[in-house]
Amino acid sequence: MLKARAGFTLAEVLIALTITAVIGAAVTGVFVTQSRFFDYQEKTSFARDVSRGALNVMLSELRMLESS
Questions:
Q1: CA pseudo-torsion sign 29, 34, 40, 46
Q2: Among 10, 14, 19, 51, which is most exposed with the fewest C-beta within 10 angstroms?
Q3: pLDDT tens for residues 3-62?
C-alpha cells in the first residue's frame, strides 16, 4: 500500500511561480513609473530654482537702480 506523501505537486509549484512572476512584473512596473516621475519632478524643481535665482538677481539689480 502506498503512503500519501507530503509536499507540493508540480502543478501547484507552476501556478505559484506564475502568480509570483505576474506580481513581480507589476511591482517592477510601478517602481519604474515612480522613478521616472521622481526624475521629472526633480528636473522641474531644479529648473524652477534656477529661474527663481535669476529673477532674484534681476530684482536685486533693479532695486539698486531705484536707490540711486
A1: negative
A2: 10
A3: 777 888 999 999 999 999 999 999 999 999 999 999 999 999 999 999 999 999 999 988
**What is the C-alpha separation between 39 and 9, in angstroms, rounded?**
45
Any residues with CB less than 8 A from the CB of 16 and at least 6 apart, and which? 8
CA dist list (Å): 44 to 37, 38, 53: 11, 10, 14
Q: Is 7 left (phi over 0), alpha (psi -120 to 50) or beta?
A: left
